[in-house]
Amino acid sequence: MSVQEYLDKHMLSRKIEDAVNAAVRAKTPDPVLFISNHMKKSVPSVITNIRARQILDSRGVPTVEVDLYTNKGVFRASAPSGSTSGLQEAIELRDGDKGMYLGNGVSRAVKNVNEKISEALIGMDPTLQGQIDQAMIDLDKTDNKGELGANAILAVSMAACRAGAAEKEVPLYKHIADIAGKTNYHLPVPAFTLISGGNHAGNNLAIQEIMILPIGATKFEEALQIGSETYHHLKTVITEKYGPRGCNVGEDGGFAPDISSLKEGLDFVKEAIGRTGYNEKIKIAIGVAATEFCIGAKYDLDYKTPNKSGQNFKSGEDMIDMYKELCEAYPIVSIEDPFDKEDWEHSKYFCSLGICQVVGGDLLMSSPKRIERAIREAACNSLLLKANQVGTVTEAIEAVKLAKDAKWGVVISQRSGESEDSFLADLAVGLATGQIKAGAPCRGERIAKYNQLLRIEEELGDQAIYAGDDWKHF
User: Fold this and answer.
1) 386 catalytic residue (yes or no)
2) Mapping DSSP to helix (H, G, I), strand (E, B) and coil, where does residue 279 land?
């Protein structure tokens, strides 16, 4: 084939002429670079390859990282992992070989990406997120993504979302908003973990975490400053009573002093807030994770203390009385999972009191079926969205829509096993959830989300809206 025949076959002469004309009109100082970029943009982006690998999350446990290739670049994402999982949430695929990572390896999930998922998605347009996610769901053929693994599917879904944003030449949060049919972008109120307990820390505190919400800040940058300063004041407060050893941290970066009760932890946080001078700008939230210490119909607040376990049982009614007292004594505006995941009746009654935001985490498992039931029964009034519980970006967006249509609050949430991937930050802004729970204002995998929110706020400039006092209503 001659050069002229080759040019004619691929219509290159016309394409090159168009690129040169565009360079002339743009009066570009670097025509070669301009023409190169112009030619590249003229070619529709398609997925050309997907490669996965096993990496470690913030707990030192394997998870799946994916590199998704298009003819425009390479786009990376990694799947988070929780310490617990519910029966109705998407399943992480683990190897189970006790000789490798104590059975927690993800080589099977990696293999599924490299062989099955890659083959199925090659040639697809990365901007068509719904079609990509549906193709993986169809390939898996199970209700809980147990064949390919939610960790494999989610990492690919997130990487494809980044590739789609790049093809459209827009930031990730704008691409997510476009998929969800949204036009406004809001910076969420961060729920900073200050004290860790439950399964996230080695102390005797039964509940999972005590958090602060800087709802009185005027922008996210100020909220982050408030969170950081309060965190460091808390370190001083704890050190004064327990010494430096009391400042060890839990899996999500919250301090884990060996406190004797929830009230003691709340008093520490209240003292730290007082020292910052931000009393009017900060509210408190608690993540109870009551399923972890529910035994039958009782709740064992001393389940982590061997010589006391079984001596401090509380009924559902006792727990409601305790929450009412705490909300009166402290500026608590949100309680997550105040009861066992199957204790619908007490959750419904507590929610009906209207004392605070009642967040469904374990109760909902980010499952559409459980969300719909909770909406019908008014069992909570806020969704804790964990992306790996649903398994794809598309399904995460649909879960948020369900909650928002019910006038619920939405909290985009981290998992105990995180990576430096900042996808959650863009997801929170793109879906205008109003709240994000990414852990303490320390540790790289937590700060990655907060720092990304700083960048987004800076990029939006005057268009940036911080949720602030409207944190429950976005």
Assistant:
1) yes
2) helix
Q: What are the strands of the beta sheet with 313-314, ordered from one edge? A: 294-295, 298-300, 313-314
Whole-model pTM: value is 0.92
Side by side, which strands form the sheet with 73-78? 47-56, 62-70, 73-78
Q: Which of 281, 386, 404, 449 is catalytic?
A: 386
Which residues, 6+ apart, have CB-to-CB distance to 255 below 8 Å? Answer: 194, 195, 196, 234, 235, 238, 246, 247, 248, 249
Least confident of 36-40, 250-254, 296-300, 466-470: 36-40
**Active-site residue, from 252, 300, 337, 340:** 252
Identify the residue whose tokens are 């408190």.
284
Please indicate if the annotation marks 337 as binding a ligand.
no
For range 372-391, the mean pLDDT: 96
The backbone torsions φ and ψ at residue 145, rounded to the nearest 5 degrees and listed phi first, read 60, 30
Instruction: Indicate the DSSP class of residue 322.
Output: H
Report whether 302 belongs to an annotated binding site.
yes
Burial class of 134 by CB neighbour count within 10 A (0 to 12, 13 to 18, 19+):
middle
CA angle 223, 224, 229 (to 5 degrees): 100
Q: Which residues have C-beta within 8 Å of that of residue 232, sequence separation ≥ 6?
A: none
